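Sanity check

After download, print the first record. It should look like this:
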Amino acid sequence: MPFYAGLKIRTNDDAATKARKQRVAGKLIDLRAALAHHFAAPAAPEPVDRLQTVRIGTWNIREFGNSKSGGRDDGESLYYIAEIVSNFDIVALQEIRADLDEFSKLMRLLGPEWDYVATDVTDGGPGNGERMVFAYNRSRAWFRNIAGELTLAEDGKIRAAFGERIKLDPAVEIVLPPGIDLSGTYDARLRSKSGGKVLDRDVEIDLPPGCTLKLPDGCSVVVTRNTPVVSPGTGKADIDLPAPIVGEERLRLRFPNDSFDDSLRQFARTPYLISFQAGWLKINLCTVHIYYGDDDDPAKMEQRRREIELLTAALAKKADGELKHDRSAFLGVLGDFNIIGAGHPTMAALESSGFVVPQALQSIPGSNVERDKHYDQIAFWKPDRDRGYVKLDIIGADVFDYYEHVYTDADEPIYAPQITGNTSYGTWRTYKMSDHLPMWIELRSNFSQEYLEAIP
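Expected structure tokens:
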């Protein structure tokens, strides 16, 4: 359980500090009771011995380590977060920022039984300066010393929403047919910047027939490998090129370096795969924070869907290979998938390549604060596949809404003096806690009886 030494009333505390500590302590008592009821409610018909189970959670803790709306420097929200996290045995955390100072404070509150493993920060804008983190209670589960970041093969990368674009530097010229002027008013999405307006999304203008492209110096025609040729001598090949040079399967056009935008990409934030064991249950867990983009931009939505699809395909391939070495281990993927909902292509992408969202999670409302989005998910690869004496035995699953107990709507007058500018209370509190709710699943971890019965 967490340590709350910072809430001790000290002789030099003024009245306001004493009242605050008393209020936070009271909130923690209420939160602890709510958590105990929450985790007991969905359990099996008969009481469940926690020594026989492992509880796995996933939680996107909004911009953890950032300073927006004052960050979490006051320490109050860290107590609440620690209390929630302490109810898991293993928890995947998303949006942990590069600066781990705030996260280190959380780990100190959790106590010496807790440890964590984390990625470095994914480079580039889409990475958003975030780490992937697994925190775990060493008395309940242990790290099997296997970890890795998942990357895609060269022939299976994700195409960026903007597609493939050639940079129009001064050496590249689009020559329009005589009399054509493409200037005009077009539909566009805008945002304010420096007192003016800028495009918030690419505007694509169709070119009329008859346009030509003036190529920059340094271009070359590429005749691809395995093209049949006639050899006049050692190390020589006769190459026949059409005139004009038009599209053929064997030909390519190579531009100078740095002519194209970076259209083929790895994951926006690199997935993190860790191997754990709890009791008799071996489970490999991959945490993700999938590219978001924009809900109403079809190209960005397709990039999001494709990222999920390639993730599940890569994990399924890895899991199929791992079964040859350890068929008793399960593979789960969990985190913020930015999934729209059941029946949406993003959900279909998650449920591809043999991954299954357990029925116990499918009926849960959304995991965002409004409970209308299904961004966070937990899925397992071929959960019913024969793994000998172990199986994926689900005890319970749910989402916990902490805003019913801390930073409640009724609490707004307490925190109003801390809120500056035009920030609403509803938004402000998400930078203290989060705009996501923690999702969890509890699995049976003791298969000693099955093991003994399997002995011939």
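If your output differs, re-run the checksum step. Summary of this record's structure: The two ends are 42 Å apart (CA to CA).
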